[in-house]
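Researcher: Go.
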Amino acid sequence: MSLFGFIPSAYAQSAAGAAGASSGPLEMLQQFAPFIIVIGIFYFLLIRPQQQKAKELRAQLSQLRRGDNIVTAGGIIGTVSRLVNDDELSVEIAEGVRVRVVRSTVTGIASKGEPRPDKADDEVEKPKPVRRGKTPPANESKPQS
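Model: Structure:
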């Protein structure tokens, strides 16, 4: 016999079996069982751990304070210098360089720092501007020609 001789008989058997017997709930459960198992595996191995990690990050973000070292979504590492409001932080990324960052872009807390003493931005010493070139002192006037 050839391989093609079996195909019509196999097709006829499956068509007759499906038409003759009614599929009950047990057969339907057997068909969907692999899908249910795969969904369960995805939930416990992928979805649930990700939800727990997001919940932990939200808790850490709510407890942010001055002096904490953070990492933003853009990869910027800095120190929290001031909490502007509920949604924004002032982060010092280099000495004297501060940027405002949205709190939701913080992806991790590198380390918990010692809280800095409360010092407003106005009280922080700002470097004096450097004068370059020849400029007359403020009390001298220009000669009239």
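Model: Strands lie at 69-72, 77-83, 88-94, 97-102, 106-111.
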